[in-house]
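Hey, can you fold this one?
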Amino acid sequence: MVAKRIIPCLDVKDGQVVKGINFEGLREVGDAVEMGVKYARDGADELVYLDISATQEGRRTFAALVERIALGIDIPFTVGGGIGSIEDAARLLDAGADKISVNSAAIADPSLIGRIAGKYGSQFVVVAIDAKCIDGRWTCTTHGGKRLTDVELFSWAREAQERGAGEILFTSMDHDGTRSGYADAVYARLADELTIPVIASGGAGSVKDIRRVLTEGRADAALAASIFHYGQIPIPTLKQALRAANVNVRM
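Sure. Predicted structure:
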């Protein structure tokens, strides 16, 4: 059985890790490289860095940061945020990222997934999906959850897989930053409908939340931010508890 992965997520703005609720009320929580080194030392399986800078200068800062991260850590890491072309992906992969994540740009131009996967391979492409449940329908959003689309979550996830995505990173915007638990039933349905790995994001507040999304939700990986950034649940403690609950994780 493939081991379940624990993945800290670091939202980066102008080189600093920040955190808020639903991408609002952001505050700095630490240095991106130093935090990545600590998480790798603590036993994180992978890292995700999301660039939430709004300016071109911020994007350039992020590309330089990726080079420093690659030199500092020895576990795989994915980078995303503002990737809208093969050239954007190439710049970050060349800087040392192991995978890139596309979101808003892929909804605007779904062929972007296949073009990146065709050049670099599906294993390099993570399609991130942010969605809200509106009147019982999971509706995809773009631009950090700020803009609603008419795209439905499950059909889009299937299309992303068909176009060459190697993984799906789904965030419930209803749960993000709330520490109220993941949308477990949604992950279970994604697991039924897809053959590629699904990373769960949005809502981690306890060991129980993570255990449930990896078992009842059948997610392949659990991504979290606040509980790690603020020391609520150290990664070694989390993994020991998951192992005790018969969840297969790497120690």
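The chain has one domain: 5-244. Let me know if you want another pass with a different chain boundary.
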